[in-house]
Structures are given as C-alpha cells and as structure tokens.
Amino acid sequence: MQLNENLQICLLALTSRYPENVVDINEDILEPQRLGTDGWRALDILELLQSTHPEVLQTKARLVLDSQECSIYLVDQSEETPALCIHCEGKIPPYQGAMLERKEKHRRSLLDESFSSPPRLTTIRRR
C-alpha cells in the first residue's frame, strides 16, 4: 500500500487500518521530541503534532506499507530517510503510552532530577 497525501491523512489512514501498530519518530526529520521518540501510535503522533507543530501535518507525505518497508516520508524533506518508522512485523517494541501519560512521566522525571541534585546555597549580601 502506498499513499501520497499530507501527513495528517497518512496518519489517519494508518490509524484506520492498523490502530495498534507502534511508530517511532525520526528526530533527524521531525526535530527532537521531549516526550520521546519510541513507542507511539499514529493517533498519538497526530495529537502530538497538532499541539506542537500543526503546520507539519499539512506537508506532503508518503505512507509506504508493504513487505519491504513500513514508513512515512515527508517528501519535501527526504525521500530516502523516513520521518516515521512503523513496526509492522517481527518483534514489535512496546507501546510507551499516549501523550498525557508521556507528559506525566516527563514531569515526574523533571521533579526527580530537581530533588536528586544538591540544594543551591544563596549568599545574601548585607550593606
């Protein structure tokens, strides 16, 4: 199956046909992701991009699902390197959670970091 549409339509098509497939984000194409790159579902990526980079959803994309590869390319950026890698067959990595769960994990990790670092001492100067 190959679909040449915008990224939003490609993600919706993937969600419709394979809602449980796990998808990884390529940060070289879609920039660093503070909520992680691995273990997404297409619908979660759609939600993520709607809240962070809605303009990307309107870019030209190519969804390729066949026995050789399962990927989504952003045609204007790279036709050789996929923006999204879809795990279709073989050992599929675990789903890491929807955006809300990821935000909560990220928030907790930031809190853990702030409690694990030594407290800062502040010097007060008197006049």
What does this structure look like?
With 127 residues, this protein is of the alpha+beta class. It has one domain. It contains 4 helices and 5 strands, in the order βαβααβββα. It has helices at residues 7-17, 27-30, 42-52, 99-116, and strands spanning 2-6, 22-25, 60-65, 70-74, 84-87. A 5-stranded antiparallel sheet has the order 1-3-4-5-2. Strand 3 (60-65) and strand 4 (70-74) form a beta hairpin. Helix 1 runs antiparallel to helix 3 (42-52). The radius of gyration is 19 Å and the shape is globular. It starts with a strand and ends in an 11-residue tail after the last helix. The mean pLDDT is 85.
Helix and strand arrangement:
Elements (H helix, E strand, L loop, with lengths): L1 E5 H11 L4 E4 L1 H4 L11 H11 L7 E6 L4 E5 L9 E4 L11 H18 L11
Antiparallel strand pairs: 1-3, 2-5, 3-4, 4-5
Helix pairs in contact: 1-3
Q: Which features does this protein show?
A:
127 residues, alpha+beta, 5 strands
